[in-house]
C-alpha cells in the first residue's frame, strides 16, 4: 500500500516526459512499442497447438497491429506544431550541381550516320567497302546522337533541405539558386526561397 504514491509519481513523471518529447520521438517510441507487442503476440500464437486456432490468433494479432499503427500515424499527423515553429521552414543541408542529359533528335542521328557512311565508304573495296559503309553509318549515327545529347545537356542544381519537423526534401533548379549549406529557407508554392 505504501508504494501507490511512488507509483503515481513515477507514472506522472513518465507522462510528463512523453509530453516533452517531439511528435516524431513520440511516434517512434509508439511504433517501437507496437512492433514489440506484435512480435510477442506472434510468439504466443506460435505456441498454439491447433493449426486453425494458431492461424486465427495470427490474423487477430495482425489486425490489432494494423489498427494500432493506423492510430499512431493518425496521432502523429494530428500532433500540434509547437507555437512559433514553422512547418514549412527548413535549412539547406547541401547543394549538388549535376548535369541533365539533353535529348538527341533525328538531326544528330542522320548527320552522324551520313558522316559515318562517308568515312566507312573510304575503307576497303567490294563487299568489305559495303560492310564498312554500313558499320560507319551505324557507328556515326550513334556517335551523332551522343554528341547532340551532350551539346544539349544542361546543369541542374539540387538543393537538399531538412525541415524543422525533421522531414527531408530535395528541389531541382535549372539555374543557380544562390543557396549554400546552412541557409534558412521557406517552402512556398512548391519551391523554396531564402528567408
Could you walk me through the main structural features you see in this protein, from its secondary elements to its overall organization?
The chain is α+β, with helices and mostly antiparallel strands. Strands 3-2-1-4-5 form a 5-stranded antiparallel beta sheet, with no helix packed on it. The two termini are 59 Å apart. Keywords: Membrane, Signal. InterPro entries: Bact_OM_lipoprot/Surf_antigen, Gly_zipper_2TM_dom. One of its GO terms (cellular component) is outer membrane.
Please write the string of helix (H) and strand (E) elements. HHHEHHEEEE
Task: Work out the number of β strands.
Answer: 5
Question: Within the largest sheet, what's the order of strands?
Answer: 3-2-1-4-5
Low-confidence stretches: none
> Per the principal axes of the C-alpha atoms, what is the gross shape?
elongated
Count of individual domains = 3
Cα-atom radius of gyration: 32 Å
What distinguishing features does this structure have?
single chain; 195 residues; five-stranded antiparallel sheet; 5 strands; alpha+beta; signal; elongated; 56% helix
